[in-house]
Description:
The chain is built from 27 helices and twelve strands. The chain is an alpha/beta fold.
Amino acid sequence: MYLLRCDCTVVNAALLLLQKPELCPADLFLYIYECERDCAPTSKFQKLKTENGWQFNIFFPSMTMPFENVYMICSRGISNVGPNIKVFPQWKNIWKIAKITGAVLLGGCLFFTYEVVSLSRAVTLNTQAVEQEKHKSYIYLDSIHFKDQDTLDYQYRTVAQACDHRTAIGVARTQGVDLRFFLPPPSLPEGHDNCSTEDQLRDLLASLPQSDVDECVKYFTYLALRESSESIAAQRGGLWCFGGNGLPYTQSLSSVPSEKVETFCLQALVHHSKDSRHCDTIVAKRGLQLLQKIYQLRQDSLKIQRTIVRIIGNLALCDSLHNAIVQSGWISLLAELLKSPHIIQASHAARALANLDRDAMQEKYQDGIYILHPQFRSSQKIKADVLFIHGLLGAAFKTWRQQDLDVVQNGKAAGEKEDYTDCWPKTWLAADCPNLRVLSVEYDTHLSDWRAKCPAENQRKSLAYRSQELLKKLKAAGVGDKPLVWVAHSMGGLLVKKMLLDAAKDPELQTLLNNTRGIIFYSVPHHGSFMAEYSVNVKYILFPSVEVKELIKGSPSLHELNDDFLTVAKEKDLKVLSFAETLPTNIGTMVKMNVVPVQSADLGYGDLIKVDVDHLNICKPQNKDSFLYKRSLQFIRDALASELSR
Length: 646
């Protein structure tokens, strides 16, 4: 505030203003210029300055000083004042600000909460509506009784036509699904009159790459083409080497059954389908349609149908081919086969559908890895795995069948009993432990090189080679991600020990060993077998295979394998249960021997139980109430107790 040439009245008014802080800004400075020298209020200003520290100046310039100079003095006074003295606002003003701010914040929170609750309710209602629409067709068909069967079939066809390929695969893997949910396979084009299925298979094999492929693939392709050529020669009435159309009896001598030719060709396709580079070519050459044609024509041959589905399962490992497999009509055939009473047929279909179902499955089951349980989609959580590995001359299914009995007490054959099963892990174990995934492994074995399917396989039958091969397949199937119990028969037990030792050395497979909870050994020759020793003694007659030579009693490699495994088993505190046979086994009609003596079946670690059965039946319980099955089931439950109790 500036007072220039003021009298005492003005100065008094300024004094009153300074005494009312609510009307006076906190940073007020008062400058009085050319006031009367005898003005009484000036003394009061001096007193206020002393008491309150207020900033003001009273300047009495010379009467001769020009007005411009007074103005300049005023300006300098403004710029050279002392530091501001802050005067804090009154509590009344702070309370007003707080009330306004609090009201705004409270209103904003209430509005935001209301919007969130409203949005949540809206989303819930929409989700329920989506679920109702999703299941509307199923509920509609299930709850309404149609008097007209044609109308009901029409409803199923409508649903089948509306399904995309992923939905169709999921429905096919639903237990108890009605097969009318699937469209029938498309009509296959009629082939040429002179073009049989053998010719088409031959053309398909000839179109596949033959260079830079596995030796066994080449061998099986050559074998199939050779058999096909002999069949063609027979159909033309004579051997080509005699110029064709030879004597009538030549045809009968050189004829090759068409089923045998198809079997050779399909076996070659199995090996080609293991190579992802050949899968695209098989599909591009209309191999899916050809396989479907043979599948429908060979309804009487379970073996041919099984081989075809095995090829489809291999093709399903390629995600890019799923659309083609669905469009060719294979889903309805696989869904039907999955309901088959034949466990082997159904398990092949389950493997193919599992490889197709990428929405519910992350694992992929390569050739030789079969899922026995669960074979359908299920909301039940799988807590652990049980893996079955057969031995010499065994298989993924027949090794684990119920014990064969010619005659039972009531006079009926064992196969006619209602509770007989062709695979007890699939039937009994899955029912007693539904939270377990049950897998079975299959690989080719031979007693003699005379029976080898492929000459190149002779060098691939060692435990070391098979271990590496199976470990890759088991890793793709997710084995090792969950707690695991191994069940092995005969040579399969040696393979289990080798795989665990190899897993211990591979950082990527450490979880396989760490998650192993226990192992069941059924007559495993930890220290060798008399049968292998017998085969080697007559090696010039039998030509024993590589796997048989590795089972010789007292073999240094077996001794080293056993010692290394015992070290790992003790370190990891693995639970081990061993069963030993006590009865001799018939080898042919002339030889009878204990294949694996009790001393060889004794690992030297864990529990050993002697059972009065022979080598073939040591892994085949008589029934579900037999000691062999009950003790095995108890061991599995005890080894996985912590996982199953969750």
